[in-house]
Amino acid sequence: MKKILIILFLVFLTSLTFGQEKRVVSIIDSTKTPELVLIQEFTVNSPIDSVWNAYTTKKGWKNGAVPLAEIDLRVGGFIKTNYNKAGEIGDSTTIVTPILNYVPKKLITLQAELTDNFPEFMKKEEKDFYNLIYFVETEKGKTHVKSYGIGYKNNLKYLSLMEYFIPANEKLLMNLILYLETNTKTKKE
User: Fold this and answer.
1) What letters, b where the CB count within 10 A reaches 16 and e where it falls short, cover 47-64?
2) If DSSP codes are grouped into helix, strand and coil, which group holds residue 98?
3) What gap in Å lies between CA 14 and CA 188, rounded to an integer?
4) CA-closest candidate to residue 126, choices 137, 134, 117
5) If phi over 0 gives left and psi between -120 and 50 gives alpha, with beta otherwise, what is residue 140?
6) 69/56 Cα distance (integer angstroms)
7) 8 Å CB contact between 79 and 64
């Protein structure tokens, strides 16, 4: 319990930005269960159609997140991404997330398929990892996105992993916000 409180405090500290409001809020919720939920959310000054398209089209992923993407938007479809601009979709660095279900402009549920780049302890539990993403138009021209990453175990290995996942995801989401609000392609390394 003490370790969880320390991690939650660290997450809180990383959410402070020297006098500025932080755009992406990240919370680890354990609610006394054997699993952790990584909740990440933001509001973007962009209409829901644009935000939905950023999450569900090749153009959206390539402009807001990764150099390589392939999307098959349907139940049983997939989102394939690759952060390696010298790579290709289908190589060992491709991240595949099958689409379990979706309600257009409301919800998408993804399941993880882990590559060799993930730790062994995660690979053994791959079937447990899901991401539920909710989209809500809060007012004309603004959209709130809330993501629930589930399946992480409530132990020190996963809590340490969160120290990497949280800032990496926040950077990715900030790139997405930049793209949606300014139509500026993000620079991908």
Assistant:
1) bbebbbbbbbebebbbbb
2) strand
3) 23
4) 117
5) beta
6) 10
7) no
In the chain, the percentage of residues whose pLDDT exceeds 90 is 67
Q: Kindly state the tokens that stand for 117.
A: 């780049």
Six-digit token string for 187: 């620079």
Residue with tokens 């409001």: 21
What 3-state class would DSSP assign to 145? strand
Please, which pLDDT band fits residue 118 given cuts at 50, 70 and 90? confident
Going by their DSSP bridges, the two strands 25-29 and 78-82 should be labelled as unpaired
End-to-end alpha-carbon separation of the chain, Å? Answer: 38
Mean pLDDT, rounded, for 137-149 = 95
For 49, 110, 111, 182, the CA distances from 135, given in Å and listed in that order, are 10, 14, 18, 20
Task: Read off the pTM.
Answer: 0.85
* Residue 9 or residue 89, greater confidence: 89
Q: Which residue has the tokens 């950077």?
A: 171
Give the pLDDT score at 186: 60
Residue type present at position 138: T
Measured between alpha carbons, how far is 3 from 12 in angstroms, rounded to an integer?
14
